[in-house]
Write a structure and sequence with these properties.
Elements lengths: L1 H24 L6 H9 L12 H10 L12 H12 L9 E5 L20 H5 L17 H5 L5 E2 L7 E2 L9 H5 L5 E5 L4 E3 L7 H7 L9 H5 L5 E4 L2 E4 L9 H5 L5 E3 L6
Antiparallel strand pairs: 1-4, 2-3, 5-8, 6-7
Length: 265
């Protein structure tokens, strides 16, 4: 038994030394510029930039195969640092955050049937487009919550998610996951949004959802700067005109237009 342990221990030592030698012998040294870029990145490795983590993005930057403003997590501070390392001028990008364009929770939106399956939005819509009465609405199974690496989404099963603006980095992973496209990015400078995606006529919307846009036009009439129009039975805000006065929010009979509680970042 003792000899067997000694033999195994000796083999382990020899193999360990061999691996250590091989590691040093065949080590791939990182480009100094790439290493500097990697240090400038936040190290979250969320992949929102479109590359496999911060290392992949740093490598692409060093090779000149990526733009310096792809890191939404680090924001302009990181973009500016990257630009300094690369020796290029960078423009400040308006900070964005995710927004949910649906308020059809269990209380306000009817279901077509009782869904009892995998808790995944894409899996649910494979069955007749999902169980929600509104074909445009949030499925409410939390796929976006699981996709968010920053714990920026509050959610109750069966209901649309709520974005926490203080934690949201605008990475976009949540809306890339949403099969209904009810999550999108919007500027943090915007004060209001239309929390509905339905293109159905008002009567059809009323039958299935209490908080959906019924295209009544009240917001269009009340807007003092003509920033709202109706398109395909849905109110649309022109943010180049919107002054954030909130009159549309007060006038909307279904409370579809809401304030966006976003803080500057």
């Amino acid at each position: 038994m003792v000899y067997a342990l000694l033999i195994l221990g000796g083999l382990g030592l020899i193999l360990g030394l061999g691996l250590a030698f091989a590691g040093q012998k065949f080590m791939v040294h990182m480009d100094p510029k790439q290493e500097e870029l990697l240090k400038a990145l936040p190290g979250v490795n969320c992949g929102a930039c479109g590359f496999p983590g911060c290392l992949g993005y740093a490598e692409a930057l060093a090779l000149g195969n990526a733009e310096p403003n792809k890191c939404s997590v680090g924001g302009y501070k990181t973009t500016k640092a990257i630009g300094h390392i690369l020796g290029v001028d960078v423009d400040e990008k308006v900070a964005e955050m995710a927004a949910v364009f649906c308020r059809g929770d269990r209380e306000n939106c009817t279901d077509k049937y009782i869904y009892d399956g995998v808790s995944d939005c894409r899996a649910a819509i494979a069955l007749s487009g999902g169980h929600k009465g509104c074909i445009y609405g949030c499925i409410g199974l939390g796929s976006c919550v699981r996709a968010c690496p920053f714990d920026a989404i509050d959610w109750q099963p069966g209901n649309p998610p709520k974005i926490n603006p203080d934690k949201c980095t605008g990475c976009g992973l949540c809306f890339k996951t949403c099969p209904k496209n009810v999550i999108g990015l919007m500027s943090r400078e915007h004060a209001v949004c239309v929390a509905c995606k339905s293109l159905d006529k008002g009567r059809e919307v009323r039958n299935i959802c209490k908080v959906g846009c019924i295209a009544c036009g009240a917001c269009v009439k009340i807007c003092p700067v003509n920033a709202i129009t109706l398109k395909d039975n849905l109110a649309v805000i022109d943010y180049s005109k919107c002054i954030g006065c909130g009159k549309c929010v007060e006038k909307c009979p279904t409370k579809t237009i809401i304030f966006v509680k976003a803080k500057g970042k």
